[in-house]
């Protein structure tokens, strides 16, 4: 027969006063060492929270602005121009500049590849033909999810307006793609600032942990590589809304994030498991329906008006082969095995590869669900969220380098250990260098593929190690820095300090009625 789950102690609410913040300079040797040029760790009798302006959040935002500025300079080499023989100004990508200078950004080539440089185009409506008059001829449309595609289109329109102002002598001029990149970078930078803000607010008593997001080496390399900071902003703000017990707003933000990149939608899975365990299904249902509603509100008009163009994103993802950064490519290269469907012709889907990735990811999700229902103390939302997103990246056939940004805010909330996280982020960011020189090609003194794939393996092992540490903290809550400081689940919202209603132990589900829970609390009070 099902047995009643053992009683667990729910932490009492902790003070959120400035004096009760968790100070990294006291708990992290790395942070303590970083404070030495500024006078060392904060003293025991320091008056915290008294400065009229400088708060942990404002310091983190300032550091993020500095980091984003450096990130822009890292990409600036790829928007340089030169005078062609006919006197026109052209983008200077000669001699493999994007790879030698390691400044490559998808934003630059997409301006022309997605036909955004044509003022008459509209994403999902406008089509073009690739490989015309060949056996590989194919009709193409905007290949990004709806909000990402509209974001690019709006920036193209702003570029046209800027060029008109430059022609009138009101604004400085440049080649259109350079203006387009800079306008896009402005909004992407604001999105990363929103990510930093959301993490600082979610962490509550650990606002200084947001510094790890603000100065992340992955941000320095990839903030402007693609449009992923938009997705991290929606996901992080969605987590913050859930933490503030606003499931409707959380669902809307998660749904909008999924309309930019798919991954924010994965956060609903961990929430489902945790809400089942805590008996908070009403809050989860509200968030899930809001996410579906906001996603449909963005996608449905485009899907109805331009169904073929809208399906392009899903079609390409289904037909796409394994990415150079994926573990499947590592296995194929080092073993010579071509079982992952080999070379595909246009219009063919790698059925076996798609099946393997789906089965592995679903298997990982099942294991994470078991962990969420079986652990002695209910895991924190950020912990399971990090595990799900990491599992998707590790098992997916595509791991574009900027996808690692998805993990940064979740990792900071799930595993706030400064030395470990900075070590992983530095390692992951450094993969960019061999990737660029691999794309340069061996004929141009680039790296052989094996060297690049070796760094991919090291990166994946680092992410696996972080997952192991998160699982250890779930199984042994005393080792969790957040719970060791007296918190329960700062990002949990209605789950924070809630009692378990359903758990899975000994091969059976055990259920405790709300009355039993109330009596148990009353007994402890007496």
TrEMBL record:
InterPro entries: GT87, UCP010361. The keyword Cell membrane applies. It is a multi-pass membrane protein. Pfam families: GT87. Keywords: Cell membrane, Membrane, Transferase, Transmembrane, Transmembrane helix. The chain crosses the membrane at residues 177-199, 211-242, 248-276, 283-306, 351-373, 420-439, 451-471. It is found in: Cell membrane. It comes from the Bacteria. Its main location: membrane. The keyword Transcription regulation does not apply. Belongs to the glycosyltransferase 87 family. This is Membrane protein. It comes from Amycolatopsis magusensis. The lineage of its organism: Bacteria, Bacillati, Actinomycetota, Actinomycetes, Pseudonocardiales.
């Amino acid at each position: 027969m099902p047995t009643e789950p053992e009683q667990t102690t729910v932490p009492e609410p902790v003070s959120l006063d400035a004096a009760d913040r968790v100070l990294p300079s006291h708990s992290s040797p790395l942070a303590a060492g970083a404070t030495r040029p500024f006078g060392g760790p904060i003293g025991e009798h320091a008056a915290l929270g008294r400065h009229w302006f400088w708060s942990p959040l404002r310091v983190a935002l300032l550091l993020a602005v500095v980091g984003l500025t450096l990130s822009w300079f890292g990409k600036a080499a790829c928007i340089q121009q030169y005078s062609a023989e006919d006197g026109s100004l052209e983008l200077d990508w000669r001699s493999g500049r994007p790879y030698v200078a390691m400044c490559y950004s998808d934003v630059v080539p997409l301006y022309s590849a997605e036909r955004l440089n044509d003022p008459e185009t509209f994403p999902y409506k406008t089509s073009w033909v690739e490989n015309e008059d060949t056996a590989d001829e194919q009709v193409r449309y905007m290949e990004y999810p709806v909000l990402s595609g509209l974001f690019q289109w709006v920036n193209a329109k702003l570029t046209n307006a800027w060029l008109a102002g430059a022609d009138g002598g009101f604004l400085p001029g440049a080649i259109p793609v350079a203006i387009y990149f800079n306008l896009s970078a402005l909004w992407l930078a604001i999105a990363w600032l929103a990510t930093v803000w959301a993490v600082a607010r979610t962490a509550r008593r650990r606002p200084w942990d947001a510094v790890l997001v603000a100065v992340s080496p992955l941000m320095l390399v990839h903030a402007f590589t693609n449009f992923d900071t938009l997705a991290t902003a929606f996901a992080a703000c969605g987590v913050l809304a859930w933490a503030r017990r606003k499931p409707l707003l959380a669902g809307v933000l998660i749904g909008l994030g999924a309309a930019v990149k798919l991954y924010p939608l994965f956060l609903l899975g961990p929430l489902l498991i945790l809400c089942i365990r805590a008996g908070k299904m009403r809050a989860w249902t509200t968030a899930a329906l809001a996410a579906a509603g906001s996603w449909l509100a963005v996608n449905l008009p485009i899907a109805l008006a331009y169904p073929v163009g809208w399906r392009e994103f899903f079609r390409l993802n289904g037909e796409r082969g394994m990415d150079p950064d994926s573990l499947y490519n590592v296995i194929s290269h080092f073993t010579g095995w071509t079982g992952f469907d080999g070379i595909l012709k246009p219009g063919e889907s790698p059925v076996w590869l798609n099946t393997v990735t789906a089965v592995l990811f679903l298997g990982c999700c099942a294991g994470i669900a078991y962990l969420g229902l079986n652990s002695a103390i209910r895991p924190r939302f950020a912990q399971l969220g990090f595990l799900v997103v990491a599992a998707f990246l590790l098992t997916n056939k595509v791991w574009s380098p900027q996808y690692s940004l998805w993990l940064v805010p979740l990792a900071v909330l799930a595993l706030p250990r400064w030395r470990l996280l900075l070590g992983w982020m530095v390692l992951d960011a450094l993969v960019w260098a061999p990737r660029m020189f691999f794309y340069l090609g061996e004929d141009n003194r680039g790296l052989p593929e094996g060297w690049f794939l070796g760094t991919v393996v090291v990166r994946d092992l680092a992410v696996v190690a972080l997952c192991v540490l998160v699982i250890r903290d779930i199984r042994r809550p005393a080792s969790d820095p957040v719970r060791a400081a007296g918190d329960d689940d700062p990002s949990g919202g209605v789950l924070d300090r809630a009692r378990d209603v359903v758990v899975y132990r000994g091969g059976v589900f055990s259920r405790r009625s709300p009355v039993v829970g109330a009596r148990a609390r009353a007994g402890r009070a007496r």
